[in-house]
Amino acid sequence: MWFTRSTLNRLFLLALPMVVSQGALALMAFADRFFLSRISPVHVAASLGGGVSFWVCLCFFNGIAAYGNAMVAQYFGRKDMRSCPRVVTQGIILSVIAMPMLLLMAWPMLSLFEWMGHAPEQVALEKPYFMTFIMGSFFFLVKTVLASYFSGIARPRVVMIADLIGVFLNIPLSYLLIFGRFGLPELGIVGAALGTVVACLLSIGIYLLFYFNPIHARRFHVRKSFVYMPGIMRRYLRLGLPSGFEVLIGLGTFNVFLLLFQSYGVAEGAAMAMVFNWDMLSFVPLMGLNIALMSMVGRTVGAGDMSKTNEVIASGFVIAVTYSGLMGLMFVIWRESLLGVFATPGSDFAPILAVGAPMMVGLATYAVADGLILVCSGVLRGAGDTRWLLITSVTVHVLTMIVQVFVITVWKLEPLVSWWVFVSMLIINALLYLWRVLGSRWRHPDRLARVMAE
């Protein structure tokens, strides 16, 4: 595992706009929960339960859409410019098909909050927050398709610009809608969700300006791309479906764990929401590195040149471990101060702090594991090794979820026992992914040829 400075610089320059982009999205969610914490801890807990439940519904389709990054990168590496925007067309077709399925999934999810034993006042906030997001699902999927396209053709600055503009709109708009300023209605938690949907629409508009730019449109034959392509659609589904299922099972089991954990009480639920807010500021920027690695490896697969892959992987490990290690130190040293940012004025914060401070130590423990997982999964997705990722991820997450059910509902152990089970799962997952990447089966020429076959 060695690398040159040029490879490290190239990966860093590709990843940096994506890191800024993903960090901006994390900041958007962070700001919404900060505003909601000014109302009550119940609003913070409800935003986590309702928000994660929405992403559980969306993640399967979003996981398929996001695989467009690797596909576009593979065509781009093969210098097949015509096929790159055709991936976008297939992705939008899939987004249209997904919408009625999402609406059908939403109704049983609404009863899940009560079934998990959440407080009535929390359920009353979770449901409208969740449904506001569901009604905007199509726009989130289209945004993912367009972002994946520009990442795949090595234009991450477009993604950064679109997301930054969206965030700069979302934060003040959410504030106005949550608290009802300047004549706008006071919508509370619904205003937070609505502000995010409106910001998503603006980001799509920015993407389309770049997409239909005359120079770009001529180079990639955009105007001739609005056709159904069975071969590309088959590849999209063959490689994207395992990725979508992996994200669905991973986030689905996480959501069940989250909802079960919130049954400990409002203080425990609020503590988890606050800890995961800081987790997002560590985890989500590393998603930018994950996207950059997927794009770079996808291009080497498309070009049939894997000679630089080891350098790319080693560079990814250096960036991820350095960043996540520094974040972990911050979480340990300033854990109480970081949690105190979300303290509701005039309320007793001691019960939340008693649970949240040890959880921040756990967060620091698995921060590096998160970095390794994101590096390895980006490499393997770029190389089309999505079936192995699916099998491994599902196995680890389902087994952990079974243990969590016993810990929380059967044995009724303390909240921190459940938390350390979650931390252990992430460390095991990281070790398995690392073992796969350091092996050679995923990069065999015959397997890579099957990845490119339509």
Automatic annotation (TrEMBL):
This protein's name: Multidrug-efflux transporter
Any one biological process term the GO annotation gives: monoatomic ion transport
Pfam families documented for this protein: MatE (PF01554)
NCBIfam families attached to this UniProt entry: matE (TIGR00797)
CC per GO annotation: plasma membrane
InterPro entries named in the record: MATE_fam, MATE_MdtK, MdtK-like
Keywords: Antiport, Cell membrane, Ion transport, Membrane, Transmembrane, Transmembrane helix, Transport
Cell compartment(s), UniProt: Cell inner membrane
GO molecular function, one term: antiporter activity
Stretches that traverse the bilayer: 42-67, 87-109, 129-151, 158-178, 190-215, 236-261, 281-301, 313-334, 354-376, 388-411, 417-438
Membrane protein topology class: Multi-pass membrane protein
Protein species of origin: Congregibacter litoralis KT71
Main subcellular location of this protein, as a coarse class: membrane
